[in-house]
């Protein structure tokens, strides 16, 4: 190798080292600046803030704020306590008041979907669309996440919580006594023409067994076709919906995910079980996430007919990543795709048969349409 070439290579290496050092310095100085500012805010709070200071809460909100800076409504920080409560809720058992709620991505408004039968909120008079405005004496703002509000509503069994709701211009406060609730995520009934009806309110750990038990019950009652109602179902656990799809679909793809590095994970049905009857799925604008995984698989695989309105459009996957001290970061880490390769994020899934319920009448046009479709098969 010539001296000239050697000098060029050495020069290139020096430049690379300088550039790398520059970026390392920027990262280090940026981190130090952040730490220094946090400490300065803490000193300012200690010096001037007149109210009571909860150091644990301050720390938790520092971590929450870091993740909130992503601007992703689905990513969040969970303290050790928060994560334990979340595990209880996804198990399908929790201590609360029994209200399913949803949050509008645009307005931030948190509204009632429905109440759970036998829960403290059952028979209270709450209606779908009622807007939550207060938890106890604390106002609910559009910047509050649904998860944070739910955690405030939950609590120790036997304790009370006051919830204020707005219906048009009328505001009403309810006082509920919390109790342990096992979420009845599946409900069934027989309809005319030997049509079985099965609704799924969300996909929890208990949902798979409830679904299989409900389906077996309907078959025993003589069902020869099935309606699965996913309207107002906000989603839930990926593993739960995959297992249910596996009970319905013949062998083949259910869904696949892809992370930021292009790595794919494919979920297939095994053909050990398969629904052996005509199927309709009911969907609407609040059918989201896991509901759309099932809907997309049914539609793409032509295993049933989707009836209703365009779904919500949440085609991203969240995972929980341990931070080593019992706390977790919930982050959007992948995009999911239907069997035909469609990502429906912010697009939704169009039903095979579009029909909108008329809220002015008591008739359920979407359900009636599904009954009509199945009665002809």
Number of helices: 8
Shape: globular
Radius of gyration: 25 Å
* Unreliable segments of 5+ consecutive residues: 2-27
Mean pLDDT: 89
Main β-sheet description: 6 strands, mixed
Strand content: 25-35%
Give the SSE string. HHEHEEEEEHEEEEEHEHEEEHEEEEH
Cα separation of the termini:
81 Å
Secondary structure: number of strands: 19
- By secondary-structure content and strand pairing, the structural class works out as alpha+beta
Strand order within the widest sheet? Answer: 10-11-12-15-16-19
Which percent range fits the helix content?
25-40%
Characteristic key phrases:
five-stranded antiparallel β-sheet, 8 helices, globular, alpha+beta, single chain, 377 residues
What report would you give on this structure?
- There is one protein chain.
- This protein is α+β, with helices and mostly antiparallel strands and 377 residues long.
- Helix content is 33%, strand content 28%.
- The protein is built from 8 helices and 19 strands.
- The chain has a 6-stranded mixed β-sheet, with helices on both faces. Strands 1, 13, 14, 17 and 18 form a 5-stranded antiparallel β-sheet that branches.
- α5 (207-220) runs parallel beside α6 and α6 (238-248) packs parallel to α7 (290-300).
């Amino acid at each position: 190798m010539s001296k000239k070439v050697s000098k060029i290579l050495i020069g290139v290496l020096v430049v690379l080292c300088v550039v790398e050092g520059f970026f390392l310095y920027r990262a280090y100085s940026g981190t130090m600046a952040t730490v220094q500012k946090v400490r300065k805010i803490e000193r300012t709070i200690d010096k001037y803030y007149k109210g009571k200071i909860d150091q644990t809460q301050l720390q938790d909100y520092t971590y929450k704020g870091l993740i909130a800076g992503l601007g992703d409504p689905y990513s969040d920080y969970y303290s050790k306590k928060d994560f334990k409560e979340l595990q209880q809720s996804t198990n399908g058992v929790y201590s609360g008041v029994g209200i399913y709620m949803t949050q509008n991505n645009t307005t931030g408004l948190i509204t009632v979907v429905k109440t759970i039968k036998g829960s403290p909120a059952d028979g209270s008079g709450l209606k779908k669309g009622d807007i939550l405005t207060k938890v106890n004496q604390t106002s609910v703002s559009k910047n509050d996440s649904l998860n944070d509000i739910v955690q405030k509503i939950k609590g120790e069994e036997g304790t009370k919580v006051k919830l204020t709701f707005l219906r048009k211009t009328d505001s009403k406060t309810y006082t509920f006594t919390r109790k342990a609730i096992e979420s009845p995520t599946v409900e069934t009934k027989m309809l005319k023409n030997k049509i079985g009806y099965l609704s799924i309110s969300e996909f929890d750990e208990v949902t798979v067994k409830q679904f299989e038990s409900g389906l077996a019950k309907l078959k025993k009652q003589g069902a020869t076709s099935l309606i699965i109602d996913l309207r107002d179902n906000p989603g839930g656990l990926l593993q739960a919906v995959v297992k249910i799809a596996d009970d319905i679909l013949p062998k083949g793809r259910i869904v696949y995910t892809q992370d930021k590095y292009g790595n794919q994970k494919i979920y297939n049905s095994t053909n050990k079980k398969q629904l052996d009857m005509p199927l309709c799925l009911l969907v609407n604008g609040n059918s989201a996430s896991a509901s759309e995984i099932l809907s997309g698989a049914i539609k793409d695989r032509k295993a049933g007919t989707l009836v209703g309105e365009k779904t919500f459009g949440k085609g991203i996957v969240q995972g929980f990543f341990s931070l080593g001290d019992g706390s977790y970061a919930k982050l959007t880490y992948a995009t999911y795709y239907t069997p035909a390769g469609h990502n429906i994020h912010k697009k939704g899934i169009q039903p095979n048969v579009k029909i909108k319920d008329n809220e002015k009448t008591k008739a359920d046009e979407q359900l009636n349409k599904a009954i009509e479709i199945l009665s002809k098969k």
